[in-house]
Design goal:
4 strands, 427 residues, 2% strand, mainly alpha, two-stranded antiparallel ribbon, 17 helices, two-stranded antiparallel sheet
C-alpha cells in the first residue's frame, strides 16, 4: 500500500545516509532485494556501532553465505539486548517485506532514537520538556521554572526515562513549545502542514532565509502561513539539509496526506535529535552546535594550541612569562573544556554520535597534552613570583600535581577519597 511504499523509500534513504559515510561507500537501491545477502546489512551495523563484524564476502555468495551474514547481524543486535520479535535470518534472505521492514525499524528505533534519548537522560537534559497530559498536549510546568532558575529537578530527568516514541515526542515539544500556534501531539497529522518541521528547524537555526522558485524570505510559520503545505514542507526539508546536515529522507508529497506514515516521520525527526541532542535554547554564538561541529571546532583548536606550545618551546624554551597571555589562553581552555566534557558524556553514553572510538581517543589524547601544558605554564608563572609568593606558588602547584596523578581512581568514591587524603597528608 501507499504507507509501505513511503516507508520503504524512507528506510532506503536513511540506510544510504549512513552507508555513504563508509569507505568504500555502498548504496541500497531496493530495500528487500539488496539486504538479502546480509553484506550491506552488516556494513550498516558497522557504521552505526563503530564495531567490526565478521562477514562472508566474495563475488559468488550463495544462500548459506547469506544466512551466515544475516545470522551474524541478528546475533549482534541480540548482543545489544535488542528484542527481535518474529525476525529470523531465513525470512530476511527470502525477502519477506514485513520482516525486512520490521528489522530496519528495530535498528532505527535502537540506534537513532533509543540510544539518543538515553544520551538525554545521561546529560540530565539541560532544559525541561513540556509535560504531556493525557491528550498529549504540551503544557508549562514547574520544571520550566526550575530551568530558568538554573536547576534541574529529579522529575525533569525522569521524563527522559520513558519509551523511545514518547521521549522523541517530548524532545520535539521542548523545541517547539515557544513557537506560537504549533502543537505536536503525534508523529502523523501534526506534521502534515509543515509547521512542525519549520518550528524544529527554527529552534535550532532561527532567522534562516531561503530563496527558491516557490518562496523567498524568512523560514518561519508567520511568514509562510498563506503558502501551501507542500511549500512549507519543501522549505523545511531544504534548510534542514543544507544548513543543519539532516538527510532529506522524505518528499513533501509523502507527508501532505491524510495519514502520514508514523515510522517515516519518526525516522526523519530522529535525525534532529541525533545531531542536536541538546536542542537550541540560546541564540547566536550561544546556540548549541551539532556534535560534528563541536568535535571539529575542538579538534582544530587543540592542533593549533599544540603547535603554538611547540613553537614557544623551540624559540624560547618555555611558554612566555606573560600573565595576560596566559589568562587569554586559559579562558579559551575553559570554554573548550565545556565542549570536551559534553562530547565525553555523549561518546560514553552512546555509540551513535558520529565520532568513532579512534577519533575520540586521538582527540582526548590531544586534550590531555594541552591540559598538561596549561598546568605547566601556570606553574612557571606561580613559581616565578617574587619572594615567599613564589614558594607558595610552588607548594600549590605540587599539590595540584598530586591531585592530577594517574593513581587516583576516576570514580568519586571512598577509595578515591582515601587516596586524596593520603596525598594531602604526604604533601
Amino acid at each position: 500500500d501507499e504507507q509501505e511504499r513511503i516507508q520503504r523509500k524512507t528506510f532506503v534513504n536513511w540506510i544510504n545516509s549512513y552507508l555513504s559515510k563508509r569507505k568504500p561507500q555502498m548504496k541500497v537501491e531496493n530495500l528487500i532485494d539488496d539486504l538479502k545477502d546480509g553484506v550491506k546489512l552488516l556494513a550498516l551495523l558497522e557504521v552505526l556501532s563503530g564495531e567490526r563484524l565478521p562477514m562472508e564476502r566474495g563475488r559468488v555468495l550463495r544462500r548459506p553465505h547469506y544466512l551466515s551474514n544475516c545470522n551474524t547481524a541478528l546475533e549482534f543486535l541480540r548482543s545489544k539486548r535488542i528484542k527481535l520479535v518474529n525476525i529470523n535470518a531465513s525470512d530476511v534472505v527470502d525477502g519477506k517485506p514485513a520482516v525486512v521492514l520490521g528489522l530496519i525499524w528495530t535498528i532505527i528505533l535502537y540506534f537513532q532514537i533509543e540510544e539518543n534519548t538515553r544520551v538525554l537522560e545521561k546529560l540530565g537534559q539541560r532544559y525541561a520538556s513540556p509535560s504531556v497530559d493525557r491528550r498529549g498536549y504540551a503544557s508549562s510546568t514547574d520544571d520550566d521554572r526550575s530551568v530558568r532558575e538554573g536547576s534541574i529537578s529529579r522529575k525533569t530527568q525522569e521524563k527522559w526515562k520513558v519509551g523511545a516514541k514518547k521521549a522523541l515526542l517530548q524532545w520535539v515539544q521542548a523545541q517547539v513549545s515557544k513557537q506560537l500556534g504549533v502543537q505536536v501531539n503525534d508523529f502523523g497529522p501534526s506534521w502534515r502542514d509543515g509547521n512542525a518541521f519549520l518550528a524544529v528547524v527554527n529552534s535550532i537555526r532561527p532567522g534562516s532565509e531561503v530563496t527558491t522558485e516557490k518562496y523567498s524570505g524568512l523560514v518561519d510559520m508567520e511568514s509562510m502561513r498563506h503558502l501551501p503545505n507542500t511549500v512549507r514542507l519543501e522549505t523545511a526539508f531544504n534548510i534542514a539539509d543544507t544548513e543543519l546536515g539532516i538527510a532529506p529522507l522524505l518528499d513533501p508529497e509523502d507527508v501532505d496526506v491524510d495519514r502520514p506514515d508514523e515510522k517515516s516521520i519518526m525516522t526523519y525527526v530522529a535525525q534532529f535529535l541525533h545531531r542536536y541532542p541538546e536542542g537550541s535554547e540560546g541564540r547566536g554564538q550561544d546556540r548549541f552546535q551539532s556534535i560534528e561541529a563541536q568535535y571539529s571546532e575542538l579538534h582544530v583548536w587543540l592542533h593549533e594550541k599544540i603547535s603554538w606550545f611547540d613553537a614557544m618551546h623551540q624559540t624560547r624554551g618555555q611558554a612566555p612569562m606573560d600573565y595576560k597571555e596566559y589568562t587569554k589562553v586559559l579562558m579559551e581552555y575553559k570554554q573548550k573544556e565545556e565542549i570536551h566534557e559534553r562530547l565525553r558524556q555523549l561518546v560514553e553514553g552512546s555509540s551513535q554520535v558520529g565520532i568513532s572510538a579512534d577519533a575520540w581517543q586521538e582527540l582526548d589524547t590531544n586534550w590531555q597534552k594541552v591540559a598538561a601544558q596549561v598546568r605547566h605554564w601556570q606553574w612557571l608563572l606561580d613559581t616565578g613570583l617574587p619572594g615567599d609568593f613564589g614558594q607558595i606558588g610552588e607548594w600549590l602547584n605540587q599539590g595540584e600535581g598530586l591531585i592530577y596523578g594517574d593513581d587516583i581512581p576516576t570514580q568519586l568514591n571512598e577509595e578515591a577519597a582515601a587516596v586524596l587524603n593520603q596525598k594531602i597528608e604526604d604533601h
